[in-house]
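Researcher: Please generate the 3D structure of the following complex. Treat every line as part of one assembly.
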Amino acid sequence: AQSVAQPEDQVNVAEGNPLTVKCTYSVSGNPYLFWYVQYPNRGLQFLLKYITGDNLVKGSYGFEAEFNKSQTSFHLKKPSALVSDSALYFCAVRDGGNQGGKLIFGQGTELSVKP
Amino acid sequence: GAVVSQHPSWVICKSGTSVKIECRSLDFQATTMFWYRQFPKQSLMLMATSNEGSKATYEQGVEKDKFLINHASLTLSTLTVTSAHPEDSSFYICSAISPLTNTEAFFGQGTRLTVV
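Model: Done. Output below.
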């Protein structure tokens, strides 16, 4: 069975500092991993994905994530946080071997960036 | 990227009435769409997978007679909450997989349903 864990309900960062939002996953086949961001009362916006290839993937708004197979992790990072990055972040996984496979979400991490 | 649009963005209805939410893929055809429910500050719970031209596949614990899904065309799926009650109040979000990559999903803007 697939599962995703985001161990932190909330992450607080000062503007300009680096940020990390953690994610670990479990999937039986090859993992397709995703990060999404959600602003209040809005749908989810796609940030980045790992399918295959380089373990470090770059996405929208300066975000990046590193796939670590041995630790089954896919942490989201940004070198310098902005106040406008404050939002709810979701990690998600899908079994890459199953084209019709469901997207399973973590519980979400609320990122708060203070000036 | 692929655009998914939901309508309405918010709706208030009386207990016992039914509410229909539309999910459209604006610039691509989607044979499959997904419906999620989200409670405040919580994750998305997959309710059902909507399949064009066939019956939807519901997740365990989701009442198919309560949450009617119709996917009559390649660009439109609808979710009807029948005989709504206050406990059905929630944020409902639909999504479809990008046809260009067949990997990431794109989401509608969500519908806030309040049943009074």
